[in-house]
Amino acid sequence: MIVRPAGPRVPATVTHALIAACFLVFLLGPASGLNPAYGTGDALLVSGTAYFRRWGVVPAELFSGSARALLTPLTALFVHGSWLHLLGNMLFLHVFGTMSEERMGRARFLGFYVVTGYLALAAYAAANAGSTQTLVGASGAVSAVLGAFLCLLPQVRVTSLFPFLLFLPLRFPAWIVLLFWFVLQGVAAQRAGSGPGVAYLAHLVGFALGFCYAWVRRLRTTRVRRPATATEGDSQP
């Protein structure tokens, strides 16, 4: 599924900076295959394994009390395992991050992205505490952006390409596309279990965190506006 909101986009500094940082880290790392410092063949595989264990989340080590381990959910947000992994995450971040950043504001959006991404990865690690599989990627943070978008901008129309619909470009309200995505993640999580592969649980946790944050923020905004509106109404002759 490929999506994009209809209508013109306004550049979002934080979203674009996060995308640029992820691309830069990937190009300099071993997974891109473009940095000769990591060697080739077997040497590249060994270097890649060591690289991911250093910067990614290892559930069995995260809650060991090590300061370095506690930082890995942050560094893992900028590390990706393949071109497909990177491009998929960055596509969704570009599509939904731009409008979410506009609605939240730059500083708030950056804090939201980092905190929810960290918590999503930590939640996956807690649920798989004995695992030594390394977890990397911005999926948890990007999923939080999707959840926030669902709450903040549910009626924005999105152009979507679905494989089972012969990739015909169809436009739907964002709430339909995002709820469909969420259900797919839940089904995939049930089938995948806790073995190696895509961390669907991190997607689900991130999405829920993003939606809840946006919901609470919207409630607070509504409560602040109501007294002001009531005061203005009382002052009318």
Automatic annotation (TrEMBL):
Residues 73-217 form the Peptidase S54 rhomboid domain. SUPFAM superfamilies: Rhomboid-like (SSF144091). The lineage of its organism: Bacteria, Bacillati, Actinomycetota, Actinomycetes, Kitasatosporales. One of its GO terms (biological process) is proteolysis. It comes from the Bacteria. It is a multi-pass membrane protein. GO terms for molecular function: peptidase activity. Pfam families: Rhomboid (PF01694). It comes from Streptomyces antimicrobicus. This is Rhomboid family intramembrane serine protease.
